[in-house]
Design goal:
- The protein is of the alpha+beta class and about 475 residues long.
- It folds into 3 domains: about 70 residues, lambda repressor-like DNA-binding domains (434 Repressor (Amino-terminal Domain), Orthogonal Bundle), CATH 1.10.260; about 130 residues, Orthogonal Bundle (Arc Repressor Mutant, subunit A), CATH 1.10.10; about 150 residues, 2-Layer Sandwich (Beta-Lactamase).
- It is about 45% helix and about 10% strand.
- The chain is built from 18 helices and 9 strands.
- About 30% of the residues are buried.
């Protein structure tokens, strides 16, 4: 019986019947043989009563024992006070670092109602954010599994992009700003640069006046602006509706990015280029970047789109920061990326022995680093480049299994390492000697890491300030 008693509720029921009987703590204490301080702690839920004391309390208060054991608060006031006490025991409340709130008899019920309502709203938002983060990780894992199964190749988007660039007058080679403007016009849009474009968006589309706004050239280069415009057009070309949840938002973003890559680096031009490079054993993401005037990351993405389908080369791609935290990843070659319990790769930390992290230790960190890494599931070759246009800088890696390294420039590298992560003894475990010297003698103060899937806003389209973008459109509509 005693194991089922809620001390907080029991204490309030004792206090309720004591007050009803007109007794003080001292009065009740004399009848049950306990001092007043002990009974005060009992009434505040800080003591669990023994069965013998429960019987004595019931006799002293002249009530059946069952009245003290009912698992509900005796009245609304007690219910509010119990709610306040329990709220203050929760971590989210403690994190506020507020002084302990002890409801006095003079504190009105409405004040307690307000505190509990505000805490309930805070707790609800926190739980929604946590659910959204987990939903984001699961959705991302499911989408990456689909991309792996397809070899990261989307035939329907390739066809749509090919038709769009042909209609815009693309004649081969690099995709010019003029061709970008022509493609926008084919979908009924004009492109405008705006100095006061809200910082929460890369582009903003005015559907009423059919305008696509992008930042001024001092904020975004011509090369980057082509990508932004084409990603925006991609949403309309693919007839994306407003996303209903984060999973749909994520898929639409992947598809729009794919469309932009397929437009800037058309399959009809890139595939012969890559096939010749493979035949010459001279494959290089840097050559794709230079030939089509795109960023290294976009060239790397495009390579993963086409490598398995047209070159019969399974690949992996990863973008991570200097701490080794993965921001974006794809693989269909069995590379052992670290994963969490739901299979999410993003947000996990890479082994420090991988080229993706070793590049930051290179004497010339802005040159492409080639490296072989021996892992428990085989040897992988990779090429990594640091992109310093991001803050902080990120590393972009494309890699293949050992047998396919023969087709790539940089295969002769002498850089080689051994990684047993994520399961074996490797960089995450200090040596026995090091642990013996420092175990118990180190106190790190952790720098918080920001990550798109670790701090996901609750909004369907994360991070967008709706008021800000509406105000911008209002200002710009008459220009």
């Amino acid at each position: 019986m005693q194991e089922t008693i809620d001390p907080l509720v029991f204490g309030h029921r004792v206090r309720h019947y004591r007050n009803k009987a007109g007794m003080t703590l001292d009065d009740l204490g004399e009848r049950v043989g306990k001092p007043a301080p002990y009974l005060s702690m009992l009434e505040n839920g800080k003591r669990e009563p023994r069965l013998g004391l429960i019987n004595k309390l019931a006799d002293a208060l002249d009530i059946p024992v069952g009245e003290l054991l009912i698992p509900d608060a005796p009245n609304r006031r007690s219910q509010l006070e119990i709610g306040i006490a329990r709220a203050q025991q929760e971590a989210i409340y403690r994190d506020l670092s507020l002084p302990v709130l002890k409801p006095s008899a003079k504190m009105p019920d409405i004040a307690l109602e307000h505190v509990l309502a505000l805490f309930g709203e805070l707790k609800g938002r926190e739980q929604a954010t946590m659910a959204t983060r987990e939903e984001a990780r699961i959705a991302n894992s499911e989408l990456r599994a689909e991309m792996r199964e397809r070899g990261n190749y989307f035939q329907e988007i390739e066809t749509l992009a090919a038709d769009a660039v042909a209609a815009a007058g693309y004649a081969g080679g690099g995709f010019t700003e003029g061709t970008t403007q022509a493609m926008a016009a084919k979908f009924g849009f004009t492109v405008h640069r705006a100095r006061d474009l809200p910082s929460s968006v890369r582009s903003l589309t005015d559907l009423r006046n059919r305008r696509i706004y992008i930042p001024q050239r001092d904020s975004i280069s011509v090369r980057a602006s082509r990508s932004v415009v084409l990603q925006t057009i991609g949403h309309f070309a693919l007839e994306h509706p407003e996303p209903r949840d984060f999973a749909e938002f994520l898929r639409q973003r992947v598809e729009a990015n794919y469309f932009a890559g397929a437009a800037l680096m058309p399959e009809v031009s890139v595939v012969p280029f890559l096939q010749k490079a493979k035949k010459d054993r001279n494959l290089s993401v840097a050559d794709v970047r230079d030939s089509f005037y795109v960023s290294y990351e976009m060239a790397a993405h495009r390579f993963t789109n086409l490598a398995t389908r047209h070159l019969d080369i399974p690949v992996h791609f990863v973008r991570s920061d200097e701490q080794g935290i993965i921001w974006k990843a794809y693989e269909n070659n069995g590379v052992p990326f670290p994963q969490n319990s739901v299979g999410a790769i993003e947000g996990q930390r890479l082994c420090r022995e991988w080229g993706t992290r070793q590049v930051f230790k290179s004497e010339d960190r802005f040159s492409i680093r080639f490296q072989y890494t021996d892992t428990p599931v085989g040897t992988f070759w990779c090429a990594t480049r640091v992109e310093d246009t991001r803050n902080p800088a990120h590393a972009v890696t494309v890699g293949v299994g050992f047998k396919h390294a023969q087709y790539f420039r940089g295969r002769e590298t002498n850089h080689r390492s051994v990684s047993r992560c994520p399961d074996g003894p490797c960089c995450r475990r200090p040596s026995d000697e090091l642990a013996a010297r420092w175990d118990g003698w180190a106190f790190p103060s952790v720098r918080p890491n920001s990550h798109v899937l670790a701090a996901m806003p609750v909004e369907t389209i994360p991070g967008v300030d709706t008021t800000e973008i509406f105000e911008f459109l209002d200002r710009s509509a008459g220009e």
